[in-house]
Every structure is written in structure tokens, then in C-alpha cells.
Design a protein that fits this description.
Blueprint: H1 13-25, H2 30-46, H3 50-61, H4 71-78
């Protein structure tokens, strides 16, 4: 098991109280919820969203790729 360390977070009293109340209602330790949220945040930052992933796939295939001589040329091609 990895070494555990403590972390201190500053937040508004009302936010803390509401969070603790929800955690208690769901019978979940607040620290476990925070760890789960941190893992999700990390995973989200490492994985592109569906639109980005689709755009990367299309670009690798040469689909929907625009070659422009200037920003205004690109905007014209995109219709914006």
C-alpha cells in the first residue's frame, strides 16, 4: 500500500458543512469521497473528451483538416 499523507484544504464553512452532511447521509467517509474525486479529476485530465478524441481520429485520417494561409482564410473556410 502506498504511504498515506495528510492534506489540508481551505474552504467556506457552509461548503464544508453541506459536504459533510451529504457524506454522512450516504454513509461514506468524507476522505474517501475526496480521494475518489481526485482520481476522477486526474483521469479526466489524462483522457480527452469525446469531441476531442473524435477530432484527433479525424485529423489522423486527414478528414476535416483545413489548410489556410491566414487566420481570416481559415475563418472563411470554416464559415465563421
Amino acid at each position: 500500500m502506498a504511504k498515506e499523507v495528510q492534506m489540508s484544504i481551505k474552504m467556506e464553512q457552509d461548503l464544508r458543512d453541506r459536504f459533510m452532511a451529504v457524506a454522512a447521509e450516504r454513509h461514506r467517509p468524507a476522505a474517501q469521497i475526496i480521494r475518489d474525486l481526485m482520481r476522477l479529476y486526474i483521469a479526466d485530465s489524462e483522457t480527452p473528451n469525446a469531441l476531442t478524441a473524435d477530432t484527433i481520429r479525424k485529423a489522423r485520417k486527414g478528414e476535416e483538416v483545413f489548410n489556410a494561409s491566414s487566420p481570416s482564410d481559415l475563418f472563411k473556410q470554416l464559415g465563421i
